[in-house]
Amino acid sequence: MKYRQLGDTELSISEVSFGTWAIGGSWGLSNDDEAIKGLHVAMEAGVNFFDTADVYGSGHAEELLAKATKGKEDDIYIATKFCRAGDIYDAKTYSEETVRAYCENSLRRLNRERIDLYQIHCPPLAILKDGHVFDVLDKLKAEGKIRHYGVSVETVEEGLFALSKPGVKALQVIYNIFRQKPAEALFPQAKASGAGILVRLPLASGLLTGKFTETSTFAADDHRNFNADGAQFNVGETFAGLPFTKGVELARELAWIAEGRGNMAQASMRWILENPNITCVIPGFKNERQVADNLGTAQTPSFNEEELARLRSFYENKVKDYIRGPY
């Protein structure tokens, strides 16, 4: 495993890390025993960073992390998120009283005294511009409740504004072969500001595994079913904002990237890690097999300049016009 510095913080993070949305909920049926086994496989391979949120399974993902990392609190970093348990458009959700309660509840579920990275969970731009929530986070940091804080964003505009706040040490963004816009202005600015970049949904909700067909279906409680067109939250969180059948078609055209690189998933994440401004990818998982497969990214051969140019042209000419939702 290779490690990268999280911005200008003291944290050195495994370039392949993991997100826990899938084991918490909203990705169909999951099994806690399988999830715990997967977490242990990841840690044994050198993964030292996991991302979660208080709304993943209503806190269940945090509890699973507490169980899996017990006794390793000094060695395994945990990032969690807050605000989506409330009304994200209501200023009261970001008051000191409310944020402090969110923080204490996450600390209790994680069975920790400090959160390594506390992130605002995709708030509206107006909330970021109000700025009060950053004052609250500064207080929690001064008290030792959190080590660092950051923002999970939906759009480049939100990310650029968040970076204007000196305390922001990480941005979590959607970035993959189907969603390349953040690399243009956001990533260089993050580097200049001393903030790390955490890449969520690196496989575009599974499209970039190449395993789906136009007739693939998903369980009723899977966001790839209920949010396929953005009915519940930002459409960009599902299939990178692409209509499903179009995404399947485009993924089929990318089959070549797997040649000499194991499979499409590993190749897709290796492409992400080619960007030196990125700290880590955080794919999801449900079991040991998926963890092991994602870990293969660390040994996947790089892309050459010609291949990188081909993928950029593919995005510009065949993908970006089909992306829905603000980004």
From TrEMBL:
InterPro entries linked to this entry: AKR, AKR2_Oxidoreductase, NAD(P)_OxRdtase_dom_sf, NADP_OxRdtase_dom
Gene Ontology terms for molecular function: oxidoreductase activity
Transmembrane portions of the chain: none
Boundaries of every NADP-dependent oxidoreductase domain copy: 16-315
Pfam families the record matches: Aldo_ket_red
Annotated PANTHER family: D-THREO-ALDOSE 1-DEHYDROGENASE, NADP-DEPENDENT OXIDOREDUCTASE DOMAIN-CONTAINING PROTEIN
Protein name listed in UniProt: Aldo/keto reductase
Provenance organism: Paenibacillus silvestris
Organism phylogeny: Bacteria, Bacillati, Bacillota, Bacilli, Bacillales
